[in-house]
Structure formats: C-alpha cells, structure tokens
Amino acid sequence: MSDQPPIIIAGTESKTFARKIAQELGLGLGRVEVATFSDSETHVLLHADVKNRDVYIVQATSAPTNENIMQLLLMAHAARSGKAKKITAVMPFFGYRRQEKQTVSGEAVSFQLIAKLMKAAGISRVLTIDLHKHRSAKYFKEAGIISKELRAFPVIIDHLRKKKLDHFVVLAPDKGSIPESKRYADGLGVPLIKVYKHRSIRKRDEVKFDEFEGEVKGRNVLIIDDEVNTAGTLMGVVDILKEKKAHNVYFACTHGVLSGPALSRLAKSNIRQVILMDTIYLPLENRIQKIKILSVAPLFAEQIGKWAHWKKN
Questions:
Q1: What average pLDDT score do residues 222-241 get?
Q2: Which run of H or E residues covers position 67?
Q3: Distance, C-alpha 7 to centroid of its chain
C-alpha cells in the first residue's frame, strides 16, 4: 500500500461521480477552480499540490461535449505543470465515442484526434467504461496512452438477477450488439432475440430495420445496449415488439445520453423500466418514474485503488 494517497480532481460534469469514487477510497477531492469567461473561454486553476503525486481527473465528456473535453485537457495541463507524477483521465463517458472510424471519404476520425490531444495535455492513462466499440481503445495505444475499459455487465446482471425474471428473453437491437446481448442472455439463462438495422449516413440518428429474428409473443423482453441517445432506435424496436404481442419491455444500458426528445419518448413509451448507469449525471428533475439509476463508481474506485496501491482504511 502506498504512503501517498492519490489525488482525485473532479471536473464540473462529474462532481457527483467523483465524490462517490473518493468516498469509496476514503479520500476527499483535490481543490480546483473552473470558470468560463464572458467570451466563452475556459479557465482552470488547480489549488491542490500535485507534485510527485498520482492525479486522477474525473470528467465525463458528455454534453456540452467540446466544453467538457477542453476542461479535461486544461486540468491535465495544470497538473502536468504542477509536476504530477502520473495523470489519469477517469472518463465515465467518452465523448466522440461513435466517431471511431471513417465511413465516407473526408470524414474526420474524431476519437483518434481526442486521444492525441489528451496525450499532448499530459494524460498517460485512461480509465473508462463501455466504449461504443471496444476496438476504439486502439487509438489510446497509438497515442501512447495506457487504457482500461471497464464493463457495466456485473452491475446490471446483479440487478437483473435480483428481479427474479420470469418468461424473459434478451433482445439485441442491432448486429453490433449481438455479442454483448448474448453475454447477458447467457448470464441470465434466457433466449437471445436478434434485430438487424442500418443507419443513414446523412442522418446519423435515423435507423431502418431490415430483419427481426425470434419469438417474443407473451414474453417479457430485455433490451441491452451501450447507450440511449435520442431513443429513436429504441422506440422503433419497442413498437415492433408491441406489434408482435410482447408483454413487458425493459431496457438497460450504460450511458444515458438522453439528447433531444429522448426523455419525452421514454416517458410516453410502453417500456416498463429504463435502467441506466450513473456515468452521465441526470438532474433530479429529469429522472422520470420509469428510470432506475445504478452506480458504477465502485468499479472505478476499485481500479483506481489497484493502480494507486491505495485501500480505504
């Protein structure tokens, strides 16, 4: 065990999440001031003494994405200027997660650029959870950053097992989600149903369904995905399930992006429960009755404790 505890710094987007991590480790938060000038520039002032210390900056780069990314970079730069021994970006949500490959000529691979900017700011390690595509972690390696991608699977599966599911099936909403959905189906000992779709290049949130495999009539259906954004895709799947006489529909995902009309769609939908992780802070006024939030902060705290050789007294 280290004599020097790690220093945990919270960005404005993840203060609640950072406090949960710090509490798990028996620590407080390092003091930092973040302000926005009248011309929209971000200003960071790090008060914590980080010299020769391991620093963990907790910041989800969810909306406003660009502001939160810039804040993370400035906090890392301030820590490097303060001669921190090692700087780790703890990112419960990674912005630009879906821009991990070029789909048309001339398109920027934004994920790759963000990784390079993080390295330039002084970040040498990243801790995140459930990237949109697991292969995206290659961009961290290319930039010279050590990365660890956690999985929300144990938290979600534990919650679902406690519900004592009956007559359930797990539905994979697209081809890419089949492996993860199968993992959940196997973990719960229930059948897997598959849906195939394609996404418009011009309208990234517009989805068409091509094929639906499996029997859902009279069954309770659990839909698993890595995130819910506008909930447009989800509503399309739910409508099909209801047409096919499915009973109750449950949805579980890691990241509640919930942009645009998502909350309104979920509130009006036939979904019985929406299970989200706390990777993106959801204000109390937006927590509609059918939303259940589980915490993955203990998973992050456990990994930080291992890296920092630190354990709560």
A1: 91
A2: helix 65-81
A3: 22
